[in-house]
Amino acid sequence: MAKRAVSLVLLSAFVAALAACAPDKTPKDESNVVPTKYKDEIIDTLRKIFEQNDTATVTNAMISDPALRPVGGEQHYTVCIRYTAHAATYNLTANAERIAYFYGGHLNQLIEASKEQCGSAAYKPFPELEKVCLGKGCG
After folding, report:
1. Is 46 helix (H, G, I), strand (E, B) or coil?
2. Which of 54, 58, 72, 105 has the fewest CB atoms nearer than 10 Å to its CB?
3. Where are the alpha helices (DSSP H) in the chain?
4. What is the pTM of this model?
């Protein structure tokens, strides 16, 4: 009986050792997936910000292509956005520059950008942002 117990323990240890050497077939977390719908995700997030800030229209919208940048010791995709927001009241306008951080191919954070973050971004027109319907009458 004691030999059988020892045999089972040794067999269990052997199986555990083999399992530890087997390649891990679980999917890895892909934090650096290229964002494919980055413009849509940025527009959806900015729409919420515009609604909170009484923005009526947006002009001069520009965007950069996704680029890998160092973020906190790791590499992540970022996108820079620049636009002029026009308030619904008091005819106020404000120039804004934001940086979008992506994780796993999806927007994770959209914040105001510093000159260091987006100062050298290669911008191109972003007409989709200028077409966003804001305020009353949007369906």
Report:
1. helix
2. 72
3. 2-21, 38-52, 115-118, 127-130
4. 0.75
